[in-house]
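quick one if you have a minute, typing this from the bus. theres a chain ive been looking at and ive put its sequence and its fold in token form underneath. please have a look and point out which stretches look like helix strand or loop to you. anything you notice is useful, everything is just below.

***
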Amino acid sequence: MHWNDAAEDLLNQILSRTPRPVRDETEDRIRDAAHALAEEEGKRRIGVETVIAAWVQCTPEALRADLPRQMESMGLDPHEYEAQLSGLMD
């Protein structure tokens, strides 16, 4: 499955903020989750929305509340991804 450039860039931004000891494992988990989500939705390419959904899915529950702030720090508007962040935004 192919990833569009924006999806790859987002994944790299996420990984750059991930502690080195778990970076490779995190990349594998997010990539696997993104592939599974894209296949479920019948998509041929993985885009930003799918990466965000995979990121949320792979983030431990205790850390998910911080995802909107992290998104903002990466220049993303978390309100555009409310479906992926379901329940995390006020």
Q: What stands out?
A: Residues 2-81 form one domain. The longest strand covers residues 2-3. Residues 29 and 45 are 18 Å apart (CA to CA). The helical segments are 5-16, 20-40, 48-58, 67-73.
